[in-house]
Amino acid sequence: MKEDRIPQATAKRLPLYYRQLNLLHNQGRKRISSRELSEIIKIDSATIRRDFSYFGELGRKGYGYDINHLIQFFKKILEIGEASKVALIGVGNLGTALLNYNFMKRDNMRIELAFDKNANKVGTEIGNVPIYHIDDLEKVLQEKKIIVAILTVPARVAQEITDRLVQCGVEGILNFTPSRLAVPDHIRVHHIDLSIELQSLIYLLRN
């Protein structure tokens, strides 16, 4: 398997496969066909087979897929053996909600620390996550060797904060702001605009 052969759409579906396979394993299931998995996660079975084919022969014709084998395989591919440390920038309403949720409740990732400029929040903890002043961003991120950040700041400062994140070694940004960020080619940015997602849903419902 060559990593550069894996389409981005496939890469985005891998965590979904991994989560559902774990649920099936916890229910006592031993194996599953692409058709059965398709019915559960509402992804076309041909797409599932194509996604899996990028990683070689993961199943057997007439038998399907061994669930435990797939779990172990995707666990290794997704590097879920160790928790991925993440920084959150901007502890407003959305940032606070994410801190209280944190990813350790479902996945092996966690928000390690957060940053804000509000003096009433700096030095406190939310969801057991310490909050640092935004002025200490570069120093703390480099000390903690964190390369993934969640951006929940006001749109007007999103690019400025992004430039600082890039300068201190962050390689991946989950952007909850409406701003389209300019970053170097080697930086990965995933945009999550809740208002656009909701508007798209309403449009589909009406049409």
Order of helices and strands: HEHHEEHEHEEEHEHEEH
**Beta-strand segment tally:** 10
Overall, the morphology is elongated
Cα gyration radius (Å) = 20 Å
Total helical elements: 8
CATH architecture of the largest domain: 3-Layer(aba) Sandwich
Specify the CATH class of the largest domain. Alpha Beta
User: Gap between N and C termini, in Å?
Assistant: 41 Å
Number of domain modules:
2
Structural class: alpha/beta
pLDDT < 50 runs, ≥5 residues:
none
User: What's the helical proportion of residues?
Assistant: 40-55%
Give the rounded overall mean pLDDT: 88
Biggest sheet: strand arrangement = 6-7-5-4-8-9-10
Largest sheet: 7 strands, mixed
CATH superfamily of the largest domain: NAD(P)-binding Rossmann-like Domain
> What is the CATH topology classification name of the largest domain?
Rossmann fold
Estimated share of beta-strand residues? 15-25%
How is the secondary structure organized here?
Layout: H1 8-26, E1 31-32, H2 34-41, H3 45-53, E2 59-60, E3 64-66, H4 67-77, E4 84-89, H5 93-101, E5 109-116, E6 125-126, E7 129-133, H6 137-144, E8 148-151, H7 158-167, E9 172-175, E10 188-191, H8 194-206
Parallel strand pairs: 4-5, 4-8, 5-7, 8-9, 9-10
Antiparallel strand pairs: 1-3, 2-3, 6-7
Helix pairs in contact: 1-4, 2-3
